[in-house]
UniProtKB/TrEMBL annotation:
Name of the molecule in the record: Signal peptidase I
Any one Gene Ontology molecular-function term assigned to this protein's record: signal peptidase activity
Positions of the Peptidase S26 domain: 23-282
Organism: Bacteroides caecicola
Signal sequence range: none
Family annotation (Gene3D superfamilies): Umud Fragment, subunit A
Gene name in the database record: lepB
Family: Belongs to the peptidase S26 family.
Length: 302
């Protein structure tokens, strides 16, 4: 009887297992690289982007097209000062695109913060260098004649706000008064602005209006404190007459104008907070039954 060479079989088995381990490790690395630099998936929990995106949708976000972000994850988790860099992309962000971003006010409304686990999805209404305003609940960008955002929703909101009862209802929801929350300005979701959206390198003179509109941005860029005292402005205890911005900013709006926590309420979004552009719904399910919404799967997001 021929003796079985167990040592030989053991060596073969070891090589097979080692090969499978390498394949699995390579798959893990490829998946991580893909999620960090190319595509990522996000779920839609709210109705703020209806009807384009609905609760229960899972969207595919293209990071590569605009340039993926690189930052220290440990610093982000520990809420330490964070440096975010963006790799070169194939194109710039565009007005009208649906974007996923880290919400810039996760803890308090008077200071920009960063929560690596808190993401919003909205439509880009205004770009760096634009002047945006809202007139009769409709978005306007000076010099741009295209319709912006969900115009059907804006018309419906305008009709609602044309009545005292409609205004009272939005006030009751705490959804009427708008950024920057200053009673002297009196901006609201029916009439807002004009608000200039800074681009990197833009300069402004410091006055009481610019202090109200851009204080949070300046303090975030400088990691310091901007205060006004007797008509004089002090940044980190040094008086300044003007300011030059270091970042690009965007004005974001939800397609569901009745129920969307967007730039109308919290202001402008730093570019480095943007994850990428939503391209498709790769899965959609009923939140109550768990059944797939087949008519929404692989639907292009525009």
């Amino acid at each position: 009887m021929k003796q079985v060479n167990w040592r030989k079989y053991g060596q073969v088995l070891y090589k097979v297992l080692a090969g499978l381990t390498c394949v699995y490790a390579a798959w893990i690395v490829l998946r991580i690289v893909t999620q960090v630099f190319v595509f990522a998936s996000f779920s839609i929990p709210t109705a703020s982007m209806k009807p384009v995106l609905c609760p229960g949708d899972y969207v595919l976000v293209n990071k590569f097209l605009k340039g993926a972000r690189i930052f220290d994850l440990e610093d982000a988790v520990e809420h330490r000062p964070l440096k975010i860099k963006r790799l070169p992309g194939l194109e710039k962000f565009r007005r009208g695109e649906v974007l996923v971003f880290n919400f810039p006010y996760p803890e308090r409304w008077d200071s920009i913060g960063f929560d690596v686990m808190l993401y919003y999805v909205k439509r880009c209404i205004a770009m760096p260098g634009d002047t945006v305003e809202i007139r009769n609940a409709r978005y306007r960008v000076r010099g741009i004649h295209d319709e912006l955002g969900n115009t059907d929703s804006q018309r419906s909101l305008a009709a609602m706000l044309a009545t005292d009862r409609g205004v009272e209802e939005m006030i009751h929801r705490n959804s009427y008064n708008a950024f920057p929350g200053d009673s002297a300005l009196g901006w609201n979701i029916k009439d807002f602005g004009p608000l200039y959206v800074p681009a990197c390198g833009d300069s402004i003179r410091m006055d009481s209006l610019h202090f109200k509109l851009y204080r949070n941005l300046i303090e975030w860029e400088q990691r310091g404190k901007l205060v006004c005292n007797d008509g004089h402005f002090y940044l980190n205890s040094e008086e300044i007459k003007g300011y030059r911005f270091k970042s690009n900013y965007y004005f974001m709006g939800g397609d569901n104008c009745f129920d969307s926590q967007d730039s109308r309420y919290w202001g402008l979004l730093p570019e480095c907070y943007i994850v990428g552009r939503v391209v498709r719904i790769w899965k959609s399910e009923n939140r109550f039954t768990g059944k797939l919404n087949w008519d929404r799967i692989w639907k292009k997001v525009e």
